[in-house]
Amino acid sequence: MFQVTLRLIEMVIPQGYQKEVLELLQKCNIIEIFDLKAGNDLILFKVLLTTEDSESTLDKLEKRFSHLNGFRILILPVQASIPRINETSNGENGLSPDEESVAAERISREELYTNVLAVSKPTKIYLLMTILSSLVASIGVLNNNVAVIIGAMVIAPLLGPNMGLSLATVLKDSDLARISIKSIVAGVGISIIISVIIGVLVTFDPSIPAIALRTDVALAGIFLAFASGIAGSIAFTTDVSSALIGVMVAVALLPPLSVFGLLLGSGHYYLATGAFLLFLVNLVCINLSGLITFYVQRIKPLKTWDAFKAYKITYLAMGIWTFILIILLVLIQIRKII
Amino acid sequence: MAYRLIIATIPQEKRRDNIDELLERYEVLSMWYGDSSDGQMILNILIRREKTEAILNLLQEHCSDVGGFRVILVPVEASIPIPEVPVRILPEEQEEEDTLILEGLVDRLGSKELVDRLSRQEIYADISDISRVSNVYIVMIILSSLVAAIGVLNNNVAVIIGAMVIAPLFGPNIALSLATVLGDMDLAINALKTNLTGISTALAISVVLGFFSEVDPTIPELFLRTNVGLGSVTLALSSGIVGALAFTRGFRTTLVGVMVAVALLPPLVTFGLLLGSGNFYPASGALLLFLVNLVCINLAGVITFITQRIHPILPEKVGKAKKMINMALIIWIFLLAVFVILIFQRRGVFDVVRL
User: Domain coordinates of chain A in residue numbers?
Assistant: First the structure.
């Protein structure tokens, strides 16, 4: 699954640093490098390397040159390259890479951050998407139409902000955390409101399979949510967006939420609590598994001091999520006894 | 991929020295340029992908009348340093020509009017790519019709969903909406041709299959698709809006969800199967569901593109687009009204309230 994917790094820096850049990149696993003169006394470097090597190289370049005026790095996707690149080759310069250049089997932190940030923001479109997917999910559940429910799961933009929250934790990025929490709260609120309204307006039978399925939490459901959450985080860190679709379907946040709203609106309170617990368990599992995956993948801030603090926050967050999960499990047991 | 790199080759006679100033209004994150061996200027601009349209318009207006001009839009995975929100700086003094160009743009595309979306050019490239009749398209239609028919007959939801995702019927319909708002007759004709080819191929296959196989109209997945209510209309409209939005933002995964939620192929195949096997009344329900979905996708597409302010920039196309939009809106709303009346007739006025 980890085929050689390539990235082209373009770096613009002021003239006069060519030698330093070439020296620095000698130690990295790069495939090809060339430079061009750009206007305004700038020089443009183009570096071809594998996706797995991109983070260590980017880190070095950023640490060394980011203070320069006009400094800018772009990371461009590459479809293919000729001649074909051998997976085992150590780059063209033949030098063995130093310790810091160990390849991570994932995309670089910057790329991940850009991707996650784009799906975590509470924009108008995000809110509109939440409204529409809640409508679709409610109609699908009421018609017991599995295909439509699956469609709603994939449209629903709730997975993104949760990934954003996990990434914000491991990167100690309070802005991203705030954005993500805002998105989660807004999205959950809107979905509940819409499905409650539909639940009040429409009379339905709570024994519809699509509803009954989502009013009970089993222990297996927790493992399911965990496994899918880890798969989802890996899909984010390796840029396999087709795998994400599977994850969205396997551990969907929206349908239990819609079922909760529908049942609440129609006055089936006991069943509604079941759906809500299922939603919360899924939410917590996604966050916890996202956190663990990012931690294991060693995604951390660039600066050492920040990285140290980020570790602390990560452990704290893991503790909090685990605590919430245990409370939820206790609640589920209590609910069964009642 | 939240950023785009615009690479423009600007011919010698159009190069200007104050290009930095000119671009200052456009929230450019970074800009550099070099010379090619024949004296052309190669301009590189890094910009958020939602902001590309204004720059592309500017470059087009400025240079498209000379040969050798070319703009390439390259997706960018990420950029370091993580860009801050840039402040729009308005230069105090400008050359007359700049002001003219800018004013010309502001007329049609005022800065407030710019919606955060992909550029018209990029949406167009994406959509026209999936709306052509090609051999691959026809093969895909044939295969997904087969898959859908087998899924429906075996009551296998997973297989039906597979067919929905393979199904290339969504693209041509969105292309038709885009052609309408852009006043682009060629694209519209292309999209219609693709649509008709796809629909007739799928229909032919499923009628033949229905004729030769035993079709029991009470199979749940079959019955589900002969049953159309007001819920289906709401569903199709909401999913259609999501689909069109997904195209204007480049959300690939969302699109898959839309294809599944408001599938065109399964109702069509169900119709064909029932028609081929002689179950005419349930067949009419499936046909109605298919048509409702088709019309709703088109209506939602046109409305979404209008509210996203996608419009042509060439003056001769502006008038044409207006005419086409009016015509399309009248046709689609009229058809939708007819279908809603038909739904009422089938289900009875009081039964309709149930989704």
Answer: 6-101, 109-337
